[in-house]
Amino acid sequence: MPKMIEVRSDDQCCASILRAPMDGVDAEKLALGFSALADPVRLRILSILADSPAGEVCVCDFVLPLEKSQPTISHHLKILSDSGLVHGERRSKWVWYSLDRTRLAQLRGALDA
Amino acid sequence: MPKMIEVRSDDQCCASILRAPMDGVDAEKLALGFSALADPVRLRILSILADSPAGEVCVCDFVLPLEKSQPTISHHLKILSDSGLVHGERRSKWVWYSLDRTRLAQLRGALDA
DNA sequence: TTTCTGTATTGACAAACGTCAATACATCGA
DNA sequence: TCGATGTATTGACGTTTGTCAATACAGAAA
Question: In this structure, is the dihedral angle defined by the CA atoms of residues A23, A26, A28 and A34, taken in order, positive or negative?
Fold first, then answer.
């Protein structure tokens, strides 16, 4: 069976909140983006990724510094991945995650003056 | 009994996620900030405030456009107010809310490249 | 004072969330 | 093949969240 790949048809990008009133649909989308940032564990994951010289971090290397169980880390990585903030790539037994700075800039742009 | 005013001793400001690994305390604080943005009703409140020529909007003027009950609007305004994103000022029977663009810029700054 | 209007709070409820133990899945080495 | 290791998923649990009806509070007008 062919692997399914989710394709996002709209850009989910964001004109700044501050420039025009948003309708409910845009607000829902943007709220999903900020929801991904609304958890301390996820923020630290992003921070660790940003600070990584290699630009990618193995799942196993999140567990100890974040003091959470492996399923919990995996859960948060999925949320970040679904929101487009990180991408995971399997290499042999390990999965390496990297930060999507473009997506992060989109969310920052939603707060632009 | 004198009215209690909560004073925030730290600045709750935010070095960018992207520049140094965050400890758990900083991550908690920042996550609270983004939690305030993680709801479509609250994003629309901010958007309406930003778009208001007078720079302030009466509570009563949120109810119709957002299609939520008055207690729900009040609830969201409290969350935004607690997180420092808006400020309310009572003038006779009405309470006028305004956007704190400095606080919004702090959160934007946490996502700076 | 009483009454009316605008706002905040309370209480209840369902839904969503964060967490972990147990388990399933994927990959490699023996 | 089998066993070991890294990751994802499932299921369960308590907590938090968003919502509204009812109510309380604040201010103005009669």
Answer: negative
- Residue A50, both tokens: 């940003």
Q: Terminus-to-terminus CA distance in chain B, angstroms?
A: 48
Instruction: Using a 7 A cutoff on CB, list residues near strand C.
Output: A 35, 38-39, 41, 68-72, 75-76, 79, 90, 92-93; B 58-60, 70-71, 74-75, 77-78, 88, 93-95
Instruction: Give the length of chain B.
Output: 113
pLDDT category of residue B44 using cuts at 50, 70 and 90: very high
- In chain A, what are the domain boundaries? 40-109
For B24, the token pair is 């758990």
**Is beta strand B94-99 parallel, antiparallel or unpaired with respect to B86-91?**
antiparallel
Q: What ipTM was assigned to the predicted interfaces of this complex? A: 0.89
B57-58: strand order across its sheet: B57-58, B94-99, B86-91
Specify the CATH number for A40-109; select among 1.20.1440.230, 3.40.50.720, 1.10.10.10, 2.60.120.10: 1.10.10.10
